[in-house]
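Hi everyone,

Forwarding the result from last night's run.
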Amino acid sequence: MTEDTGSRPSLVLAGAGHAHVIALRDFVTRAPDACVTIVTRDVLTPYSGMLPGVIAGHYPPGAAMIDVRPLAQSIGARLIQDEIVSLDAESRSFTCASGAKLAYDVLSIDIGSRPNTGDVPGAREGAIPVKPIDRLLGTFASVEQRFAERGYAARVAVVGGGAGGVELAFAINHRLRAIAVSAGAAEARIQVLVVAGSHGLLPGFSDGFRRRVRAALESRAVRLHEGRRVERVEDGRLFLDGGGLLEADETLWTTQAEAATWLASSGLATDEAGFVAVDETLRSTSHGNVFAAGDVASFSPMKLPKSGVYAVRQGPVLANNLRAALSNKELQTFKPQKHVLYILSTGDKNAIMTKYGMSLEGAPIWLLKHMIDNRFIKQFSTR
């Protein structure tokens, strides 16, 4: 049943993505005048920037996790471990997987996305989606187990040539080879393949950055397949358009993002892919009491990549605007960076960075990434 929050307005944060944990941290010092409820499937939310390092074996799994519980406790928020399955924007209410129904005055959505496996026959059954990222570490533990059971042999295909997929391929390659060495498996048979499809490797990035990444893939024996997309997955085989076949023991899917299905019937305005359409203030273009950030948001002023870099930057603006919406004050504009720093780790303690169209690589770049990631995660240490 719907709960009564008394005379104070109710603010619900749906999901615990990067923008929401930043907003919660902000609320610790400037709490909104509202009854705050957080609805999240998991109370430990992973920081995407460190996950490749966890998979590569450089960090323990807990190092990349942000515990939402102390953040909620610090601001007196109610924390519900559940998942939204339907939303009615007109009645300002939603239903959770448990059957619980809740109402809100202001709602913020930051539930992320998942790779779109529905457009490729067999992909839902035969491939591992890398998002939601809170499930990736458990999934990869199963990949490691099967790798050992096969006598330290694996053909791993990462479908998707974006930065996330490429960095994941580097991490998997490094981890599996390290496991084989540790087990004394001198004849380990490991082949990691990046299937970049018709868009090619790292679309949208500079030529210099792509050249460095290509060279890094080649030097680490990670194969790159470009030019044709996967049109069917069946029994460990990837069938390519125009002919061609790739075989894989494990297939990880990192292609174009897909929105939560319940958004389509929510009444909220969405883009053509089903993501929540928001204006320059991160507010829904159809409902003034709803906000969205991170992957689930479609920023109407300009197309933004589905990247944690932007979600983190949206956090402070979102926190300010949620407080403003509750008190009828002016909203702040989110201004995306024109030049974003990207650092792509290569599995070992090396990395390649790009900004302003230039690129650099080496161990010092990995140390820079290590410093940035640790500084971010330490913001959420237990208070």
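The chain has a mean pLDDT of 93.

Cheers,
N.
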